[in-house]
Structures are given as structure tokens and as C-alpha cells.
Amino acid sequence: MKKYILKKIGTAFLVSFLFTFMLLIFGPAEIFFANVTEFEFVYGEFAGYMAAFAVIGAVILTVLISFLPDMLYRILASLIFGISVAGYLQVMFLNKNLDLLGVNPEGYKTGFAQSAVNLIIWLIVITCVLAAAFWKKDMWKKAVAALSAFLLCIQVTALVSLIVTAKEDAYQYPEGGYHLSGEDQFTVSADQNVIVLILDYFSNQYLEPLESAYPGATDFLHDFTYYSNMDCTYFGTFPSLPHMLTGNEVDMSCTINEWCQQIWNSRKTESFYNMLRDRNYKANVYTPDANILCGLNDPELLSGRLSNVVNSAQDIDIFYKLLFKTLTKMSGYRMFPDLIKPYFYANIDEYADIVSVKENKIHHNNHEFYETLLEKGLTADKSSNYYIVQHLMGPHLYTTDEAGHYKEDSTLEETAKGCMVIVEEYLNQLKALGVYEDATIIITADHGGPYDSQVIFYMKEPGETHEASPVTDAPVSFLEFLPTIAEAAGGDKSEFGPSVHDFAAGEQRERTVWLRMYDAAYPAVPCYTGDKNGESNVYYGYSYTGGIEALLKQTETGPAKIVPVVDSYF
Q: What predicted TM-score, i.e. pTM, was given to this entire model?
């Protein structure tokens, strides 16, 4: 009898620990080591704690299972084992193009057919295990114990391999070094300002649902000219943001890290930032991750260009509760069937909140920026002019309510309205400081959606006032962004190209927007970080003449150009 109970407990523990090991130890570790460069924390921050949670969870499950009547024992043990086996199959074979870093604002989406097939596979696996528990009891006991041990051994071996082969930065924080500082994020010039507020992912197609839900939501922008036909040129914060800041088009024939070196060292970039410096401008760019601007190159690459690049140690805080919660969600999202993946989707906003810099943090999330703006307020600096690029989350994630505060399950309309509330408060504080009238202010986005790749673009020039916002359909793009800024700062734009002012309403012009895609007809490429496969391998170029309708029609027709790349940002 004693031997029977011990075997029962042993099987229960193997089954339970297989499940908790996959969910709390191996899953988080595999995701972490595959994306080390994307995370600001190291392995040691969570490995020990997650292992302890896994063991404790397994022990609790073992106790609960072991002392049940035999039939219930076999049912529950079979369910846990079946879920673990199906989860293993899901990770190894069934996940297709899974967004593990939560960059999609709409969250996880899949087709009905894929979800149905996926669910059937899960049901078959679990049903087979349950059937064996009733009709092949002896085989079931041996098979469940043996297979649990086998799957554990496979994954333990894989885990050891990941740990041994990982790079040093997976375990150690950098000792100082160059980074973007948020020290002056809420400082403007008392004299001349060129301010760009970038609301990530704010397609111009979002204005209609915004105005429908909240009539008059953009009325406060009456002094701004609205460019209704603005093309973002590139989809994605990378490469759009470095393209905007340097005026250099993407060189698809070289690696991302090589291109970043090229653009920040280019003659155009040097001339532009020298021009700003000659006119007593500080150039402060507030985006949360320097990798977006310089790839894996040391952010020292940005020094001499951006004024808020500093060389110092950063003291950080870890929000451990959110770290464990997010890692568990990430692992469950990876492990569980398509049908319930949406409930485990961890968005990029959550990762950003795990690590916070104690001093001089850059506020990127809408609600954090807004709450800090209300608390600290803008201040004016008399020592220099300011060129400010403030990159906010915008409607990239629907996590902002209509009043500008955090809301986990918000909507596009609410988030867009919240963004407008934040912008209005910023403008009101500029007015209170007496610097609004003389400022050049642009409210735009780094990109729109994959296919609706036109963005909002409001621009107010010094002294510009209107009762209602003028609208122009001039065919402009971010190819004109740098010259427009040069013009606003009082520089000679001729070296950089035409500005938005050089195109007239109704003018016909062919433009091309580039989307990063995966095309099976072309070879796969690595991620620029060098530690995983890339999610894209080509750029699709959609060329069109006209407005958004022409662009959408062209995307249905297909790309005019397909250009293979050397590596992928994601």
C-alpha cells in the first residue's frame, strides 16, 4: 500500500512539475534568451523566483491530486499531463508568426480555420490521455511518468544550453555608458522652439472614428494647418524615426547596424545638427529605447548630434510583481492554444513598466507622460533654443482612457481622445509660459497601420492663428520632414531637399511607402541582434499617386517593388 501511494505521489509530482516547469521556468527563459536585447532586465532578476514558484506550485498540485479518489486522481493528472503535452506541441510546431513582444496594438488575431484546427489537436491529445487513464490503467501510469520525465529531461537540457551559450549581457547590467536622458523632457526654450509631438501609430484614418465618438476632439488645434495627405514613407518606428531624424533613406543592401552607423555619420546628418547648433538649438529626442535610433551600436553614436545623450550609470528599479506577471503571461501566450491566447497577450507597454530609471527617466507611455506633465509642468530655459522630438505611445496600444489616464482595456477612440487631451494640456502649458505663439509645433505619428500608412500631420508656424484649422491635401511625405525642420529653425533647407511647403494642394506626385514583410520566395534572414531569426526578409514598396484611397487600392493590387533585406529589426 505504501509503495502504491509513493508511486501515486511520484507520478503526480512529475506531471505537476512538468506543467509548472514549462510555464514558469523554461517558457520565460526561452523567450528571454531569444530576445535579450529587447529587455532591460537580466536573467537573475527572475530565474530563481520563477523556479521557486514552479516548485511550490508543483508541490501544491501534487498534494491536491494525490489524495483524491483514484478516478478523480487519474482524470486530473491526465488533464494536467495532456495540457503539458499539447503545450509542448504548440510551442514546437503549432505557433505561426507569433508576436511574442506584443507590438501589435490590436493584440492577438488568428483566422477561424487555424483556431479550429488548433483546438482539435488539443482535444485529441487530451482525450487520448484521458482514454488511456480509464482503459489502459497500467500503461497509463507507466507512460505518464515516463513521458513526463522524458519531456522534462529534453527541456532541462535545452535550458542548460541556453544558459551556457548566452551572452554576458544576459546576466550583467552595463556599468554606465551612453544613453538618452529624460532630464529636460519637460523643459522648453524661453525663446525659440521647434517641437514635434509624435503619437505612435496615429494613422490619419483614426480621425474619423475619433470625431464620430467625440465631436470637436481636435477643435483646439485650430491654429494648425492639417496636412491630410501625409505619407510616412516607412512602416514601423524603426526605420521611420531614424529616417525622420536624419533624412537618410533606408539602404536595404546593408545590415541595420551598418545603416545606423551610416546615417548618423552622414554628411547630411552632420550638416543638419551643425546648423541647429549654430543657431543655438539643443536637439532633445525622447524615445524609450536608443536601439530604435542606432541599432546595436553604442548610443555614443548619437552624441554630438542629440543634446540629451549622456554618459553615466543608470540606477534602476524593478517592478517584480509586474515582471513575474508579464513573464507568466508571455509563457502562457506561447504555450496555450490559439483560442485563449488573447487572454495571455502581454503588450509592449507592460515590458516598459517593468524597469524604471530612478532619475531622468524618459516618459513614453501616454499616461505617465501626462501625469508627470500635470505634476511637474513645463519650465522655460533662457539659455538656448530647443528642437524637441517627443515620442509617445499614442494609439499604438489601447491603454489610455478619454481623459489621458491609464485604462487596461481601452478602445481606439478612447485612446485617440486621451492623446488629444495630452496634446491640448501640453499646448496650454506652452501658452502659459508665453512661448506658444513663436513656436513651430508639429503633431504627427512615426507611422500608421501596415496598409493605411498615412499619418496625421498638424503644423503650426510662428504667429499662425486661425479660427478653424486649414486643410491641405498637398502630397507630402516624411522625405520632407528634415528640410521642414531646417526651415523652421531658420536654416538653409536647400542642402536637405524640399519641405512640405514646396508642394501644392491638388498636386499630383508619385510616392512610395515601404512595408517590412516576410516573403517565402526570398531567403530567411537573421534578426539584427544576431540571436534569433528575423520576422521579415523583404520590403514591399507600394507606389501610388493621389491620396489614401489610391494607396489602399495599390495595397490590394500588390507591391510595385520587392527588395530583399540583409537582416530584420524584429
A: 0.84
